[in-house]
Design goal:
It contains 20 helices and 25 strands. By secondary structure, the chain is an alpha+beta fold. It has three domains: about 110 residues, Nuclear Transport Factor 2, Chain: A, CATH 3.10.450.50; about 180 residues, Penicillin-binding protein 2a (Domain 2), CATH 3.90.1310; about 270 residues, Beta-lactamase, CATH 3.40.710.10. The strands form eight sheets. A five-stranded mixed sheet has the order 1-5-4-3-2, with helices on one face. Strands 17-16-25-24-23 form a five-stranded antiparallel sheet, with helices on both faces. It is elongated and about 115 Å long. About 40% of the residues are buried. Belongs to the transpeptidase family. One of its GO terms (cellular component) is plasma membrane. This is Cell division protein FtsI/penicillin-binding protein 2.
Length: about 650
């Protein structure tokens, strides 16, 4: 028996089946849309995987259509990238892909960041093919990394060192320039008697004048010879050509010696402002670690002084070439004759200073025979230009002339006297007693070698350097008067020279005994030779100005000039400083050529033993002010003053 329904009515079963069919059709339509999506997803996945090293989500085929494993593509990209592999490029798709039936092309930009933050960018085209499963596959070929790359090739970096800029003197001439050196070495299998060779080399090196600092240490040379390959070159020392020529006839005939000539960036002499200039040497492990993007093994780097401070400016920017190398069947790498990118080296910029060659040579010569640590600074009075910065024995990088923090001793009577004159506490011919001893709060002060002058004019107290007279006058300066006067001469100011320098620390406040000691440069007052040379120049000029050393690049924030000094006080102080030379403690300078010399001697106790003394002299002649310091030098008459005399005579001979 059958049941029929009118045409406008539908069976419930038929309605259900229709709904199922509609749902199935809708599902089929969604799957079809997914298979018809563009290739951009595969492009983006490839670019992301290149950077991350994970290309598993991407399908690859070669130009013939054969499948290529994703892991193989990762390896090829790394191999092709060569020396650039450690820093993958930034990769960005350029717009939408262009589709023609089952093939597509998409542009992308490759941007490498090379050493030194150099940017290298170029555009490439990616080809894709739609596979049988409707998925877009990348057509892999080496040209995707760079259009000129082929299988078996790799990118390599070639650095071209920049020409190093020079440190220039006041005349604009390079102080540091390429100069000939000779490296002395030993070939082990040519040495019949090692102890004899070492002894003769040691004697020869010690005969070089001026003496090598530090001396050549040959203690481990026998061990190095014994452990080296028989035909090796065992380096002993590298000498300037002038030093080598002094001993050439002594060491060249010695069995086993070998010699290699080359050039290095050097100053005119070994001593020439060595601590101020610094040195230029091959990059150390610490240098390479500190600046891995800028430096490579074998690069020249400035160490210490101006060379270190301005190393990046002087060093310039190396050139860089991205080239291609090919691996031969025998496994050896050779140039493929293709350069992909190049940046020319940029030469370093010079650093111009105020140093004067004649003054510097005279300063170096004056300290040459001094066995103790010492320093000499010369400053032009008219404009504050630093003409010479010399340091005696000690580590090559130690700039005692700028960095020392030591008591000034009686040279500070120049500052104390100016303060007393400004306050009307003394006059040139006013009598001030100079006893053998003077006590303040139970602390006894005395003069060098226990001399006494009695009641004499203040100018005599100054010329003869009477400590007890200044200790007696200390209350006239008040608790801060000495510091105020010192600051008017640039002490304690914040200077900007283009290199670090200690500008002094002047005693202020404190007990009456401390103020008495400070009045003649003891107590807690400490200075550097540069600070005292600049203060002396201020007295000679009539107004303190910050010294100038680096002219280009010009320091950004030099200290402002000090106040105009009182003319009456200056006249009296200059008179007394002249009498130090004509009738006081620096008579040895009374007959030096070049004009009248004015100045002040000083000895400074540096501990509680009165026999332990630093030696000082500050002064000026014509337009040149200077300061001489000798650590543990004792009496200024036997150390600082003779050095000053040698300096002034040397300067006069050079004019």
């Amino acid at each position: 028996m059958s049941v029929s329904y009118p045409d406008h009515r539908r069976s419930p079963v038929r309605v259900f089946l229709s709904a199922v069919a509609a749902a199935a059709l809708g599902a089929a339509t969604l799957v079809g849309c997914s298979s018809q999506e563009g290739p951009e997803g595969s492009v983006d996945a490839f670019l992301a995987g290149w950077r991350s090293g994970d290309l598993q989500p991407v399908g690859f085929v070669d130009p013939t259509g054969a499948k290529v494993p994703a892991a193989e593509v990762v390896k090829e990209i790394k191999d092709l990238s060569g020396e650039l592999a450690a820093t993958p490029p930034a990769l960005n798709r350029s717009g939408d892909a262009k589709v023609t039936k089952n093939l597509a092309t998409a542009g992308y930009r490759v941007e490498w960041t090379l050493p030194g933050n150099v940017k290298w960018a170029y555009d490439r085209q990616l080809k894709l093919r739609r596979g049988g499963d409707d998925k877009w596959q990348v057509i892999w070929e080496p040209a995707l990394v760079h259009e000129q790359l082929e299988a078996g090739e790799r990118m390599a970096l070639v650095r071209d060192r920049a020409t190093r800029g020079g440190v220039l003197d006041a005349a604009g001439q390079p102080i540091v320039a390429p100069r000939k050196v000779v490296e002395v070495g030993i070939q082990p299998n040519q040495v019949p008697d090692v102890p004899d060779l070492v002894a003769k080399l040691d004697a020869a090196f010690k005969a070089i004048r001026p003496a090598l600092t530090p001396p050549v240490d040959l203690a481990d040379l026998p061990k190095r010879i014994a452990s080296a390959d028989p035909g090796a070159f065992v380096s002993v020392v590298t000498l300037r050509d002038d030093a080598y020529r002094q001993i050439r006839s002594r060491i060249r005939p010695l069995p086993g010696t070998q010699f290699r000539s080359s050039e290095r960036e050097l100053a005119p002499t070994r001593e020439f402002a060595r601590a101020l200039l610094g040195s230029v040497d091959e990059a150390t492990a610490d240098d390479l670690k500190a600046a891995p993007d800028r430096l490579r093994q074998g690069d020249l780097v400035g160490h210490g002084g101006l060379q270190g401070r301005y190393d990046e400016r002087l060093g310039g920017t190396p050139g860089l070439t991205v080239t291609v190398r090919r691996t031969n069947p025998d496994g050896k790498s050779e140039p493929a004759g293709k350069d992909l990118f190049a940046v020319e080296p940029k030469a370093g910029e010079p650093v111009k200073t105020t140093l004067d060659v004649a003054a510097q040579n005279a300063a170096d010569a004056a300290l040459r025979g001094e066995p103790k640590r010492s320093a000499l600074v010369a400053v032009r009075v008219s404009d504050g230009a630093v003409l010479a910065v010399s340091n005696g024995p000690g580590p090559a990088g130690q700039n005692l002339a700028f960095d020392a923090q030591v008591p000034p001793g009686s040279t500070f009577k120049m500052v104390s006297a100016l303060g007393l004159l400004d306050r009307g506490a003394v006059t040139l011919d006013g009598k001030v007693n100079c006893p053998k001893n003077f006590s303040v709060e139970g602390r006894s002060f005395k003069n060098s070698e226990n001399f006494e002058l009695g009641s004499v004019p203040f100018r005599t107290d100054f010329a003869k350097s009477c400590n007890t007279a200044f200790a007696f006058l200390a209350p006239e300066l008040g608790p801060d008067g000495l510091a105020e006067t010192g600051r008017s001469l640039g002490l304690e100011a914040k200077w900007d020279l283009g290199v670090d320098a200690f500008t002094g620390k002047v005693s202020t406040g404190g007990s009456k005994a401390e103020r008495a000691a400070a009045a003649f440069g003891q107590g807690t007052t400490v200075v550097s030779p540069l600070a005292m040379a600049a203060a002396t120049a201020g007295v000679a000029r009539g107004r303190w100005e910050q010294p100038k050393l680096v002219l280009d690049p010009a320091p950004a924030k030099p200290a402002a000039p000090g106040p105009e000094l009182k003319p009456a006080s200056l006249t009296a102080l200059r008179t007394m400083m002249r009498e130090v030379v004509t009738a006081g403690t620096a008579k040895a300078l009374s007959d030096v050529p070049g004009g009248p010399v004015s100045g002040k001697t000083g000895t400074a106790e540096y501990d509680n033993d009165p026999k332990h003394l630093h030696s000082w002299f500050v002064g000026w002649q014509g337009d040149i002010a200077f300061a001489v310091f000798v650590e543990q030098g004792g009496s200024s008459a036997v150390s600082a003053v003779p050095i000053s005399e040698r300096f002034l005579r040397g300067l006069a001979a050079a004019r």
